[in-house]
């Protein structure tokens, strides 16, 4: 008598002329028509994960390392018909549970910073390279620098590259280069240390990094170079 909308997951009883019929409608579980795919993401950018379900209106929960995620901070979650989307904002290389785009041309995450050094003292140049470089080397005036009694070069697993020069002398002025290379290309960061006679530090440009050795200023002219 009348029309009844049948819904999945419910049990219906039909009575007619002393006959009782039972009808149970079983919901067909949703399935993934297009599953998640691995993606590459450049650090600092956003990445959107998309999966397509067999039907719309299905509750979707996103998890990271087995923990449910919420629409807060780095995550944006949406449903568009049968598609479930999650956007991760400002992805970082240290983002556990995700692989960031490491197989790419190297780039500098951090470069040399302004510092002071005295004659016969120690100068430390440090930068951080991302992009999984296969080799990192330091040069002075285009010549490869190697470890010796005054120069010490170290490279850590997290991409931190350091050049330490001890017992500074006037001839340590010149162009210093940190060069990172892998199969996708290379990048170099140059610093020019030029001995100047002027003693008035206020005359130097504030937008250039400087290394001070005794009363002589070594002004650093920084420059990036990219190669494919």
Automatic annotation (TrEMBL):
Major location (coarse): cytoplasm
Keywords linked to the UniProt accession: Cytoplasm, Disulfide bond, Immunoglobulin domain, Phosphoprotein
Cellular location(s): Cytoplasm
Record's protein name: Ig-like domain-containing protein
The Ig-like domain, residue ranges: 29-66, 106-188
Gene Ontology CC annotations of this record: cytoplasm
Alphabetized PROSITE patterns for the sequence: IG_LIKE (PS50835), IQ (PS50096)
């Amino acid at each position: 008598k009348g029309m009844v909308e049948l819904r999945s997951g419910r049990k219906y009883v039909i009575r007619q002329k002393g006959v009782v019929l039972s009808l149970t409608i079983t919901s067909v579980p949703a399935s993934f028509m297009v599953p998640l795919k691995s993606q590459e993401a450049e650090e600092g950018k956003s990445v959107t994960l998309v999966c397509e379900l067999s039907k719309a209106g299905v509750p979707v929960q996103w998890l990271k390392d087995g923990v449910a995620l919420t629409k807060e901070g780095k995550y944006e979650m949406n449903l568009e018909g049968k598609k479930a989307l999650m956007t991760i904002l400002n992805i970082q290389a240290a983002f556990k549970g995700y692989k960031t785009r490491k197989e790419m041309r190297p780039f500098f995450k951090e470069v040399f910073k302004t510092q002071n050094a005295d004659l016969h003292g120690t100068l430390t140049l440090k930068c951080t390279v991302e992009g999984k470089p296969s080799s990192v080397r330091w040069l002075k005036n285009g010549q490869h620098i190697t470890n010796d009694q005054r120069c010490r070069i170290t490279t850590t697993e997290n991409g931190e590259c350091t050049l330490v020069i001890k017992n500074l002398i006037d001839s340590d002025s010149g162009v210093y280069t940190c060069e990172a290379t892998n199969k996708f290309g290379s990048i170099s960061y140059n610093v020019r240390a030029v001995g100047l006679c002027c003693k008035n530090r206020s005359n130097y440009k504030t937008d250039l990094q400087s290394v001070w050795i005794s009363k002589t200023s070594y002004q650093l002219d920084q420059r990036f170079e990219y190669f494919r």
